[in-house]
Each structure stands twice: as C-alpha cells, then as structure tokens.
Write a structure and sequence with these properties.
Largest sheet: 5 strands, antiparallel
Low-confidence stretches: 692-735
Radius of gyration: 31 Å
Helix content: 55-70%
Structural class: alpha+beta
Distance between the termini: 33 Å
Mean pLDDT: 84
Number of helices: 30
C-alpha cells in the first residue's frame, strides 16, 4: 500500500504541493475560529468544591466575573456619574459602591466601620463591578476594555478577570514575534548543520504547513489554552524537524541507486514511513502522558502536541517529498560544508575513561535529584506577568490601600437563622488575615430595613435558595497563610452548613497546588512506563530501556535542578511539561546511538569498535536535532514578557542541550560498559537477522556499505524493522 502511495506522490509533485497549499485555507479558518482560553483555573477538575462554587457564581449569581474599581481623589459627583456610565457598558450587569449597597437613604454614620473601611480608604473609594458572562469570556474581555475607556487616569481596575484581559493582550502582541524569532534561529541552526542553503527553507515550509494544519484542526477541540498556543508551534518545529532531516538523508542515499530521482524519493518515502511511524511513538507517548493530568490543561497541551507530531510525520511523508523534488536543483546548487566539528578525539577520550564516566553518571543522580526536588515553584499566575501591567498595578493598589489581597466567595444555603448567621460571621472575622465580611444578613444586622436595600444588591447576594458571602483577606493567594485560612474558614462554615463552598482565586489556587502535585507524579510515571515499553519492544530487551530511560531522566533531573542552583522560581506547570516532553522528544538521541551500536555488534565488531562507529555516526545527527530544538524554544524566552511562557521555553531549550550532551559524552561509555548485560537480557542482541530474499532488480541496487553512508537521523534508530531489514544486506555486502 505504501509503495503505491509513494509512487503516485512522486509522479506529480506540483499537484501534491498545490493540494497541500489549498489545505491551508480551511486550516487557517479553523485556527481563527478556535477560541483561546486564558483562565488556567478553569482547567481544575469540576468535582472540586471550588469549581462547583464557581459554577454557582456564574449561575445563578452571575458573580464569576467580578472586578474592583478604585477611584482615587475624585468628587462624589464624578463617582455617581461613573457608576451610571459603567452600568451602560454592554456586558456589565451591575456596578455597586457603598451608597447603593445599603441604600442612599442610610446615613454614612450608620454604616458599620468595617464596611466603611472596605469601600473607603483615605481619598480613594472602591466599587464592585459584575459582568453578565464568565470571567474569561470574550464578552467580559470587551466589557473590561470599555469600562477602562470610560474611566479616568485616577481609576484603577483590579481583579482576576482584568489580569486575564492583560494576559491576552500581551500574548496577542508577542505571539508573532515568538514564531518569527523561532523561525530565524532555527534557520540559523540549520544553516550551520545542514549541507545546503536552500534546504532549511524547504524544511520550514513543510513544517510550517504541519503547524498550520495542527492549529486549524484544534477547532474540533473547541478551545486551547494560551500556554498551548504559545509553545505548540515552536515545540512542533523543534521536535519534528528531525523527521525531515531523515527523509532527505535517505533520499540522498537512494539517489546513488536510481537513475530517476522520483524512484529514489519513492524508496525514501517507504523507508521514512516504516522508520518514523515507529520512532515518533516515543514522542507521542510523552505528550499523551500529559492527558492523564486531573488538571485538564495537561490534556489540552498533550492532545495538541501529540496531534502535531502525527501531522508532522504525515507532512514529511506526503508533502515534503514533493517540495524536495520541486526544488531539487536549487538544493543541489547551493550546497556547502557543514560546520559540525568532528567528535573522534572526544569519542576516543570517552572510551579510554568509560568506567570513570559511568561512575560519574551514577554519582550525578544524587545532586541532580536533590536539586530537582528542592527547586522553588510558584503557582500564582500573575507573578509571571510584567509588574507594570495596569491590572498588576491595580491589584497592588487594592492590597496596599484596602488591605484586600484575596477575596473569598462563600456560597451557602439561604435557610440559616439570623442567630446562626451572626455567630458564623463573628467567627469568620476572628480568623487571622480576614479584613471584612459582606453578606445580606450583615447589611440587615445594622438596623437597615429589608426594603431599603436596593433590588440589584439583594439579587447579588441571594438567589434560588442560596446566599453569597464575600470574605476579604489580607493574605495573598497561593500561600501557606491563605491555605491555613481556608482550612479555618471551612471548619467554621461546615459546622453551620455542611453544603457551604468557598470559591474565588484563593480557594482555586489552593486546589491547583494540590492537584498539580499529584499530576506531576502520575504523568511522570506514565510517560516513563510508556516509553520504557516502547523501547523494550524495539530492542526486545528489559535492560536496554532501563538504561536509556534512566540516562535521559538524569538529563531531566539536571535540567530542573539548574533552577535550584540558579535560585530561580519556576511555574507549577513547568516540571510536568518538561518531564514528559524532554523524555519523549530526546530519548531518540539515546535510541539512535543504541540502535547503531547493536547494528555494528551484529556485524561482528568488538564493543569498543562498535561504540566508536555508533558514536561517530550519531553525534552529528544529535547535534543538529538538539540545536534546532534549542534555538526554536530559546528564542521565545528572549522576547516573552510572561515568565510562565519564558520559563517553560528556557527549560525546554536547556533540556534539549543537556540531553544532547549526556547522549554524546556519557551514553557511549554507558553502552560500552553495559553491553554484556544487554547481551544476557535481550533477545537476539548480537544475532544477525536473516536477510530477506530480494528480487534481482532490488539486489542490484543494494545500498553502499554503512561506513560510506551519511549520518542517520535521530529518528531512523527507533525502528527495529529498518535495522533488521536494511542493516543485514549492508553487512553481507561489506563482508
């Protein structure tokens, strides 16, 4: 089947390229229609109390999107006009400040001091603004922008939804720069490591199509997170570039055996399909492991990236051959020598000191694991944003002037007696860090008749058998202090109403911390187990996957441990992403060298000779693959003003480099020393597979001896079928 497809693809390359270009049109439409979610807290499991409380805030209270507007040094007349202007903004359901909270008939002197202090601070007053739609919806984002438009420079709009709005604006402005810089740096890396000036542009055209196809097909998911949007394109570029390199190297190899370059490309397509369908499985497994996170952000990233790898392989098989055939003359015309240095002396040094290097590898685990486990992690997402953003400035002002670092929203049954409500409110006010409590009962408790309280305020605090309480705290979200505060509040609330739920930024961040801690362990174990099984199947061995996975895990520990030694905090999602992605994407480096090592052993070479050949043939491919991934992701960190995105990309770039260094400088020694163990615990480790009977026409076009072939791509190594079917005729001819 693949033979027929390969033959047809190579006969009409221009038609294939045209179809590929036309497919970009629906992909671009799908990309534009895919919604981007900027609210990471919305990915929390829906069975958590904080998530259930958030659902109640949306319906029936319509309080899921609430922001606080601070007006500083302006007369009361301006404030009253401003409230009306804000109420007229489409998407705003209500705007409340102290006068219409308790009714304009109530003298200010009758209002309790703690309630006055909540809404007044020196020359500043605070308003509560509610929106009709959820906090991260497009409608709320537009409403926030219009509220800002009607406010003066003495107004400061704070709240979680406002932070989401600024995050979206920053991302929309920086994303084109991300992609552009990643492309430029990837071009620079390929210009150094590839043998043609034109070839990098052909590769990028093919991968660019795969990226657009991937983003266009996200429409079937409905939405993706802004983190996925920021890193998916550059990560897909770095991870799938190696597949393109393999196809072209194989095409160049087959050109020597066919007069018609189309036949040579057809054979390259067949070999690429067999090899890449196997080698891509480790990368796909690494991404799919993220889908097992309870925080569904992992599923968002995992599905998009796994789909991107599949589409990358498909584009390499179906589209890239046509582009290479179309631009074949230009590629050949602009060839040059690569600037990758020879590693012969390095490999000689490694073999001389192989035992000490293996001991060093084992010893490195101790500081690496310690540092990885003690790296500082932050969970509060606005800590990753520039400190001069309007929302960050406003939140700081809310904290400093009104002592409101966090607002807890408590949803509880409306049937509690006035006595119970009074006791409960009193106990809540005594909890350390609580600055004020606002509830319908407390408004009535100051002697205000029910009919004096405006209807919109009553609707805000009481709906469909539920009542809402707003509890303000001086403690910042995602801290130990607010976590202890939430525990104390839950104990008090549940003693009066077992169905009470606390939601809001503080409670949801606490659940985010608890959920992500479990997710990291689960996804890490699943990715290791899946990739272990894939490698075990490829090499028919128990010990080979153990050694390869352990070696790349060392690179992962070193990568994450660097944050500890550098004294930098990393976002909570970074360790989970890095552990799965780095293992899945860079274990191919180890697979490449091990596969070639096994191939040379089957030819009868000694351990030292086999690893010398394997290292010499693999080093250039590892450098090329790692350098492209390094440059593509590092470029994002240079320009991203959002530390969450920058930190992930720095770790991805550093991880590619560390994995490459470990594979080049430690892996040869490890393989050489462990080879006797492999021989005893693997099936047919050194036994040559029987060479298949080839037709006469094929026998005349056997590939050249292995030592004359160009270095293989990283991806070539992961297919047993390629090794067993192709390597043996090479061996037979060499003998």
């Amino acid at each position: 089947m693949i033979e027929k497809i390969a033959h047809k693809l190579t006969r009409k390359p221009k038609l294939v390229a045209l179809i590929a270009v036309l497919m970009l049109i629906p992909s671009l439409i799908g990309y534009a229609a895919t919604r981007i979610n900027y609210d990471i807290l919305s990915y929390l499991p829906q069975d958590l109390p904080s998530s259930q409380g958030e659902q109640l805030l949306e319906e029936p209270f319509q309080m899921a999107a609430t922001s606080m507007l601070i007006v500083e040094g302006m007369p009361a007349g301006y404030t009253n006009r401003l409230i009306q202007d804000i109420k007229d903004v489409p998407g705003v359901s209500s705007a409340v400040w102290l006068s219409n909270l308790v009714g304009i008939q109530i003298p200010v002197e009758m209002i309790p001091a703690d309630l006055r202090e909540m809404f007044f601070s020196g020359q500043a007053t605070m308003m509560l603004i509610q929106y009709d739609h959820p906090g991260a919806s497009d409608e709320t984002m537009e409403a926030i922008q219009q509220v800002r438009n009607v406010c003066s420079e003495r107004c400061f709009l704070a709240g979680f939804s406002v932070v989401i709005k600024d995050t979206r604006d920053v991302m929309d402005g920086e994303l084109p720069i991300f992609v552009g810089l990643a492309v430029l740096l990837a071009l620079a890396a390929m210009s150094v490591t590839l043998e043609s000036t034109v070839l990098p542009f052909v590769y990028l055209a093919s991968i660019g199509m795969a990226v657009i196809y991937n983003f266009g097909s996200n429409i079937f998911l409905g939405q993706i997170s802004y983190i996925t949007k920021a890193i998916a394109a550059v990560l897909q570029l770095g991870v799938t570039m190696d597949y393109s390199i393999f196809l072209y190297h194989r095409y160049e190899e087959e050109r020597e055996h066919y007069d018609d370059k189309r036949d040579a490309m057809a054979q390259a397509i067949i070999a690429a399909f067999r090899s890449l369908s196997g080698s891509s499985m480790t990368t796909i497994a690494g991404f799919l492991a993220l889908c097992f996170m309870r925080l569904t952000l992992g599923r968002d990233i995992g599905v998009v990236m796994a789909k991107g790898v599949v589409l990358g392989v498909a584009t390499v098989i179906l589209v890239l051959p046509s582009l290479v055939l179309i631009f074949d003359k230009q590629i050949g015309k602009h060839k040059h020598k690569t600037l990758i240095p020879s590693f012969d002396r390095v490999n000689g040094f490694i073999l001389r000191y192989k035992v000490p290097l293996v001991v060093l590898t084992v010893l490195l685990f101790f500081p690496a694991v310690y540092a990885q486990r003690h790296a500082d992690i932050y969970y509060k997402l606005d800590e990753s944003l520039p400190r001069d953003l309007p929302s960050i400035v406003s939140n700081e002002k809310l904290k400093d002037d009104f002592d409101m670092a966090t607002s807890h929203f408590v949803v509880l049954r409306d049937g509690l007696s006035a006595a119970d409500m009074g006791e409960m409110e009193g106990k809540l006010e005594e909890v350390p860090g609580i600055t004020s409590v606002v509830s319908f009962h407390k408004l009535l408790g100051v002697g205000v008749p029910d009919f004096f309280i405006p209807e919109d305020v009553r609707n805000m605090l009481r709906q469909e058998g539920w009542q809402l309480m707003m509890v303000n705290s001086s403690y910042a979200p995602a801290t130990d202090a607010v976590s202890a505060q939430l525990d104390a509040m839950n104990e008090i609330l549940h003693s009066y109403d077992p169905s009470a739920m606390i939601t809001g930024e503080g409670a949801m961040y606490r659940d985010l911390i608890d959920t992500s801690a479990v997710d990291f362990q689960v996804t890490n174990y699943i990715s290791i187990a899946a990739i272990f099984l894939i490698i075990a199947f490829v090499f028919r061995s128990v010990t080979v996957p153990l050694v390869l996975v352990a070696t790349i895990e060392l690179a992962i520990f070193i990568n994450q441990g660097c944050c500890y030694f550098l004294g930098t905090e990393i976002p909570f999602i970074a360790p989970t992403i890095i552990s799965c992605v780095q293992l899945g994407a860079t274990v191919d480096y180890a697979i490449l060298m091990t596969s070639r090592f096994q191939e040379e052993l089957k030819k009868g070479l000694s351990r030292e000779e086999a690893i010398r050949v394997a290292a010499a043939s693999s080093d250039a491919s590892i450098v090329t693959s790692a350098l492209v991934l390094f440059c593509a992701t590092l470029g994002v960190s240079f320009v991203s003003s959002i530390d969450l995105i920058g930190a992930i990309c720095v770790m991805l770039a550093r991880g590619a480099l560390i994995s490459a260094l470990v594979s080049i400088f430690l892996m040869p020694a490890i393989l050489c020393v462990c080879e006797p163990l492999f021989h005893k615990t693997s099936w047919r480790w050194k036994t040559p597979a029987p060479a298949p009977a080839l037709p006469v026409s094929e026998a005349e076009t056997l590939p050249a001896p292995a030592e004359e072939l160009p270095p293989a791509s990283v991806s070539e190594a992961a297919s047993v079928e390629v090794v067993s079917i192709e390597a043996e005729p090479v061996s037979a001819r060499a003998e």
